[in-house]
Amino acid sequence: MLFNVGYLEVMKMYNWECFLFHDVDVLPEEHRNLHTCPTENPRHMAVAMNKYNYTLLYEKMFGTSSALTVQQFKETNGFSNRYWGWGGEDDDMYTR
Length: 96
Prior knowledge:
alpha+beta, globular, three-stranded antiparallel beta sheet, Spore Coat Polysaccharide Biosynthesis Protein SpsA, Chain A, 96 residues, 26% helix, 3 helices
């Protein structure tokens, strides 16, 4: 829910083109990771993390850190508001 609120509030201030949604409990390890939004598909930016032995936890994981254009965010209707606390919202976003 806070991702959606953040999106709505910052769009009132400036016409942003790219949004990076990031969990607060994980820090980027690789400074060469491009923090940009590809136009064709949203980008999952945390495919290799030391807490998962640098492997993807499961095949369709989309959480921890992801990049979406404004158009992609609108097309998916943002993140679901059905999830509270830890888990589920990023997997839900993957299916959208």
